[in-house]
Each structure stands twice: as C-alpha cells, then as structure tokens.
Amino acid sequence: MIRECHFSASAPVRLDFAGGWTDVPPFSTREGGAVIAAAISPRAQVHVVLGGHEVQLVSEDLGETLTLPPDAPPVIDGRLDLLKAALRLYPVGACALTTRSDVPAGSGLGSSGALDVALVAALSCARGLALSPRAIADEACRLERDEARIAGGRQDQLVSALGGFQYMVFCDPDATTDMIALDTAFADELQRSSVLCYTGTSRVSGRTIARVASAYDRGDRAVVAALHGLRDVAYDMREALAASDLARVAVLLSRNWIHQQALDPGMRTDGMARLEHAAGAAGALGGKAAGAGAGGCMFFVGPGRAAQIAEAATASGATVLDFTWSSEGVRMC
C-alpha cells in the first residue's frame, strides 16, 4: 500500500490600524511607506495530499473545484488563479490541494495574503524546504505579485506570517518589521472595545489600487497629500499603541479613514456611510475601513460601548465578526 503524504498550513488574517496604501507601489518605491497592522484569529487553511494521477484544486469557501493535468504548468485564466500560481511557484506534481478561508472574500482583512502565506508554507514543506516565517512572507509576496499578477502591497503577507502587532516600513525592495509589544491589560481592553463589521459587500481592491496608483503617477495633489497623511498617522499610531492610549487610537483610526477616503471617490460606499453613522451614534469614538476600502469590513473602537455598537451595526445590515488578536503567525503541521 502506498502511503499518502499530507501537508497542512494555516495563517491568520490581519486588521490594519494605520498607514495602509503606503505599502503599495509606486508610492512605496518612490517615497516609502509605514503601516501598522495586527494578526487576528480567523485563518486561511491549506491542505496538500501528494499522489494520484491529476491535480485537483478545491476552494471550500468559494465552492469551486478544478481538475488539471499534472504534467503542465497551470494557466492563469481567472479560475482559482492563486492556487494555480502557487503550484507554478512550487510544483509538486499530482496532488489534491484544498483551501479554506474563515472570512468572506473581499473582506479587506487580507485573506488573500493569508492564503498566500499558507500556500507557500504547505507547498514548500511538501517540496522538503524549511523556510523561516519571514522567508515565507517574502515568497508569498512574490506569489501574489509576480505569479498571480495581483496588484497590492506587502503588509498582509508579513503580518500573516509573523503574527502579532507589527510596525512595518516599506522602501521597495526593502521592508522592515518591528513587533509592537502591547501591555497585556491594554490589549485586552482594545479587544473588548473593538467591533469588526462586514458590510455584506465584497470589494475588488485591484480596481481601486489601479485608480489610486494612476492618480499618484499624475501627481494628483489630493492623492499625494492623502498618502503622506496616511504614513504620518502610522507614526502616531505606533506611539498611541505603545502608550496604551485607547482614546488616541480611536481618534487616529478616524483620521486614517479621512485620508483614505481622499484617495478615491468610491472609497466610502453608501452602506459604509450608514454603518459609520450607526456606530458613531452608538458610541464609537473612531473607526475605519479595513484594508483597501470601497466595501468589505469596517471596525470601530468604543470603550464600554462595544455591545451597543454591535447592535447598531447589525440593525444597519452589517454582520459582526468575532476575532481575537493572534500572536502566532504561520502554522505548519
């Protein structure tokens, strides 16, 4: 009897607090960016079983299955492209590759970045490679940008691979990370005070990224100023988190969101505006869109008002998502 070889990996998604967009080229290449984000408990899962006579791809959360021949590089054609790109980067022959994400697609929580990380971890392990978490993050960025040809920054992969609260500085091609050690009591208070809401509308960040990049290339003064403002908020957010200043964190979230909206007219949808108004009326001190914006998730901070904010968010049509901070990054088993 031939024994099947199994390889599994998982990686957390992330919640970005400040500076998102400044890790995206061409701004990150020309001027350098800074981002603060935290790994959170929903995870992307990858399972690989080697052997058989074909390549079978299964995305459980998307409900898609695809069968491919094992002897030809997978073609990027719009069908489970991230999985196919991973097999182009780390070919393992005939296999069954199954993935699952615990958050909705297009949520703004970096789910594709987490999937990148889990794919690289599982497939590199299947090929007998022992990569460090940082090496996995770098390879995951290469997977998304070069192989899958998906535009974006690098914060998602770094946070998913490394875990914890990360302060990241980008000056392409370099990226440095620094773990922010939160006071335990403050981390618990921040968790209790935060409400994460899915608007019900998935956003396609690639289109928004293309518009913002084009505006920056043209020297659009509003977009350039907004990117500088986002980077400045990241500097201030680092200090607020280190000082355990919850009220300041909430104010900076809203300041980040103001700069974010200045990047593109479609950044704040009607549904997001209704949710923001409802959360504010229920006692939120501040909040922002997660990730690129233009749909997906928003999160709000309101000390002592989380239950009321969650109730108001639900009444406005949003879905409240449970999460916890994740000190652990990529996990292989």
Explain briefly what this protein structure is.
It contains eleven helices and twelve strands. It has helices at residues 27-30, 81-89, 111-126, 133-147, 155-162, 184-193, 205-217, 221-242, 246-261, 270-281, 306-315; strands spanning 5-18, 33-50, 55-59, 64-68, 95-101, 165-171, 174-180, 194-198, 286-289, 297-301, 319-321, 331-332.
Description:
41% of the residues lie in helices and 25% in strands. The protein is built from 11 helices and 12 strands. The protein has helices at 27-30, 81-89, 111-126, 133-147, 155-162, 184-193, 205-217, 221-242, 246-261, 270-281, 306-315, and strands at 5-18, 33-50, 55-59, 64-68, 95-101, 165-171, 174-180, 194-198, 286-289, 297-301, 319-321, 331-332. Strands 1, 2, 3, 4, 5, 6, 7 and 12 form an 8-stranded mixed sheet that branches. The chain has a 4-stranded antiparallel sheet with strand order 9-10-8-11. Helix 2 (81-89) runs parallel beside helix 3 (111-126), helix 8 packs antiparallel against helix 9 and helix 10 (270-281) packs antiparallel against helix 11. The longest helix has 22 residues, at 221-242.
| Sheet of most strands | 8 strands, mixed
Number of helices: 11
Low-confidence stretches: none
CA-to-CA gap between the ends? 23 Å
Task: Supply the helix-strand structural class.
Answer: alpha+beta
The total count of strands amounts to 12
Q: Nearest-angstrom radius of gyration?
A: 20 Å
Shape designation: globular
Q: Strand fraction band?
A: 15-25%
